[in-house]
Structures are given as C-alpha cells and as structure tokens.
Amino acid sequence: MSFSIRLTDEEKAIAESFAKLHSISLGEAFKRCLFERIEDEYDVMVAEEAYTDYVKDGKKSRPIADLWGELDL
Question: Does the residue 2 lie in any domain?
C-alpha cells in the first residue's frame, strides 16, 4: 500500500533530516515512526488495563521505604 501526505517545506526538511540522520529513506522513516507511535499507544493501553485490574482486585501499593526496611537495606 502507498499513500501521500502534504508537508510544509519546513516539515519536509525536518523529515528528510531525520531520515538522513538514520540512513534510511523518507518512506522508511515515516513507517518506523508510525509503528513506534502505535506500539507506544498500545503499551499505554495495556498498562492502564493492568492498573485498573490491579486496583479492582483490591491491591494497593506501598512506599518503597517499607520494602527496604523489610529487606534491611
């Protein structure tokens, strides 16, 4: 699949600079950035769901100093 996007001259220069810095094509730069963003948002969603389950199960966090005390650290 292919697609096109409109960029200002400034946006294009930044994107080309990024691609050149990483020795990749402009298309590969956009592809990598897109999938990194998707992965980041997915990770946040999974973390939020895990935390919701953690709280729903009645679990609570405690200060790290308490753990250090138990471990004599």
Answer: no
CA angle (45, 6, 18) in 5-degree steps: 65
Q: Which domain holds residue 44?
A: 9-70
CA within 13 Å, CB half, 16 = 7
Residue 15 lies in a domain: yes
Q: Is 52 within a domain?
A: yes
pLDDT tens, 50-65?
999 999 999 888 899 9
On the CB side of 40, CA atoms within 13 Å amount to 6
Cα–Cα separations (whole angstroms), residue 22 to 11, 14, 33: 17, 13, 12
